[in-house]
Amino acid sequence: MKDKDSKKIKDEKPYCMTFKKWKSVPPNCGISVWYDRGAKTYQSDRYRKGACENCGAKTHVAKSCTERTRLKGAKWTGMFIAPDEKIESIEMDYVSKRDRWNGCDLENHARELRYKHYTLEDARRRYSLKILVKKRSLLVPDGLEGEDELMEGDEEKLDERKQMDFAKVERRVCTTGGGSTGTVRNLRIREDTAKYLLNLDLNSAHYDPNATRSMREDPLPYSDPHEKFYQDDNQHRTSGLAMEFNHLNIHACQAYENGQDMHLQAAPSQAELMYKSYLSRKEESESMAKDALMQKYGNAAAVAATERASLRTK
């Protein structure tokens, strides 16, 4: 008898909840259902008991109010009562819970993108037209017929500038603190031979392949310098503006140690002017010392040159 009753129970309904969807699916559930953003239901003209003390809305309390904190809330002033929010209870199903784009308004997103694109494009065209007119020193009134021609010519120039930077290769330079200092342009053309392939001898110049990618020494020291397109990385540090900046830095450090109020990083223009005045004074003092020595001892080189010139004329 007991077996018949148990079989009858099993036949009528499942005896385990995992055999069927025991959670009823509510009507407002699905992937297309979402909260009504920013919807308001009712706006009162006076403060109601139990409403938010700050804004006066009935749907929340002052602790969870998202409006600006007022000096005197709506409870005491009775003015500027905020409308009540629309409170919704949405139970999402399995698919809507795991949909990463659930609730995304595609029309609003596309509208924002179009507005941003048109705004930037219009600002760019106006700025480029202004620069072009300034270069040609023209006055462009409203409704000028040649405005479109100027815009087209400016766009062509911008396109050419973009094509010039097409072959530019940049890499990020990271610091020890975790930040980045900017980008460094790779000036090597892809058709050129890499500097670590110029000399494959193991005892030649050392190349650092990891971080700096530098080769401090000349890989081909005995070759003709007029035929080499690459010597070493130190040539940029020991020639040109790098040496001038190095001398300026040394002069600023020495002047600061001697008590002068000069700092290269804090006031670079002042340091450069003081360095130029120092060089001019040094040159004047050296020329004065040279003139004094020549007046005292004479110039034997000049006398020998005059004697040779006289012998040639004879």
Automatic annotation (TrEMBL):
Annotated Gene Ontology cellular component terms: spliceosomal complex
GO terms, biological process: mRNA splicing, via spliceosome
Domain Pre-mRNA-splicing factor SLU7 per the UniProt entry, residue ranges: 92-309
Domain of life: Eukaryota
InterPro entries xrefs: Slu7_dom (IPR021715), Splicing_factor_SLU7 (IPR039974)
Any single Pfam family the record assigns to this protein: Slu7
Free-text function comment from the UniProt entry: Involved in pre-mRNA splicing.
Family: Belongs to the SLU7 family.
Protein name per the record: Pre-mRNA-splicing factor SLU7
Organism: Thalictrum thalictroides (Rue-anemone)
